Amino acid sequence: MKAMSRLPLASLTGLAVLVMLLASGCGKSPYDNPIANNSQQPDKILFDKAVENIERHRYELARITLQTLINTYPDSEYIAKAKLAIADSWYREGTSEGLAQAEAEYKDFITFFPNMEEAAESQLKICQIHYNQLQKPDRDPIHAVRADQECRQLLLRYPNTVFLDETQQLLRNVQEVIAEGEYRVGMFYVKKGSFRAGVNRLQSVTDHYPLFSKADESLWLLGENYEKLGDNFEDQQVAAYQKIVSDYPMSPYVDGAKEKLSALQRETPETDPERFELHKYNVEHRTEPGRMSTFWGIFRGKPDLGMAAKAGDPAMTTLMPSTPPGIQASAAAAVEPTADVTVETISGPSALDSEPDARLNQPQTESSETPAEQDEQN
Length: 378
Description:
The protein is mostly helical. The chain is built from 18 helices and no strands. 30% of the residues are buried.
């Protein structure tokens, strides 16, 4: 006690705070959706036990407790929270099976409780499930496509959500990966000499993803490859160069595009002020990959998102395949199908009367024995 009394007051206060923090379990990751209620009702007790198990990473036990609550007290005020907690337990478990199950549980929650505030958060979690599994542009794009769909669904269904800014940035990152994949496919066709297929991919990228970090480079390549396709594509070539000048004023291809337009004796457009500010902001906030980052990127499965746009409205529609330039749809495809059936009475002799019955011309089998002879042998 004498030693304790010699400690200064500030030290005693700090020690008391430390003891309180340790007693409160500050090292744990708190559950995201607790219910602050001191009620001692049995359903509340079950929910509290489940939350404690989630915090202690005992997810299976938490789900059993929550399912008991749902089955035993179907009219409880904690039903919605219990269903959401089951989804969160799968999400926090983090395995591939757990994430798939979490997505299904979140979708069920949105279906049954679409007007609750947590519905938007559940949709965000579904988006993050696929976003966290993004692969590099040259790998399977399934999670990029799904993340794009789910993030757009959140923005369309909950336009006033508090997660608006976060979701838009997730969507910009995802679309950077999708656009990079399409760009690489286009470059493959160009290098191979398939210029129609190449410009088809590059045109789709620049039209659908104007925030793509290589959109200006794609437009420059478009102009060059439209030139290789001949004079019939001069208008498309000019449009690509004009878009570089008007929409991407910070691009290193602006001067070259102006020279091309001058050589073609076409009008050089004015720079759009809004596009200038947007492009300037995105260029200034890019993170160029360093030398070591480029080296280690070979061994990483995750994409580098440092070049993704940080401002601007992401695309809100799905990228659809288009027809390469110069290829016309077939005439047969343009004919509308019909389901009309006509009935006509046959008068006089017809093919049924004049032609031999096809059923009589059966091919002979290898065995010349009759069915009766085969039965006798058997």
